[in-house]
Amino acid sequence: MTETPDGSSGIISVDFQHILFLKCNTSESQSILVHTREGVYYIMGPLRYWVSALNSTGCHFSIINRGTAVNIDNVSRLDRAFRAAYFNLMNAPKSLTCTIALHRYRFVEKELLRINPNIIMS
């Protein structure tokens, strides 16, 4: 991963468990934004490739809409009314949110409940 879109900051290592979600970068078609509690990083390649690679290493990523995949292990709350996944951040006034596509919601909810039966549902 890099800290800059063009890679000029060099490559850094980020623990997979710290990744909250992956989101396709709309300003650069080839890159993906990697959101963590510490900040946002960049990787290159297709979203489905990274979800497959991360899940093959024991992670639990799920594609929730066309351009976003969440790390199921880091979802702190699921909102049924707004079809949204929330991630609590330490020392932050509010949490990060990802909207889940209508046709993917039930699958994501089932995955969350399987991995974390005590997840907060609202």
TrEMBL record:
<protein>
    <submittedName>
        <fullName>LytTR family transcriptional regulator DNA-binding domain-containing protein</fullName>
    </submittedName>
</protein>
<dbReference type="GO" id="GO:0003677">
    <property type="term" value="F:DNA binding"/>
</dbReference>
<dbReference type="InterPro" id="IPR007492">
    <property type="entry name" value="LytTR_DNA-bd_dom"/>
</dbReference>
<dbReference type="Pfam" id="PF04397">
    <property type="entry name" value="LytTR"/>
</dbReference>
<feature type="domain" description="HTH LytTR-type">
    <location>
        <begin position="10"/>
        <end position="92"/>
    </location>
</feature>
<keyword id="KW-0238">DNA-binding</keyword>
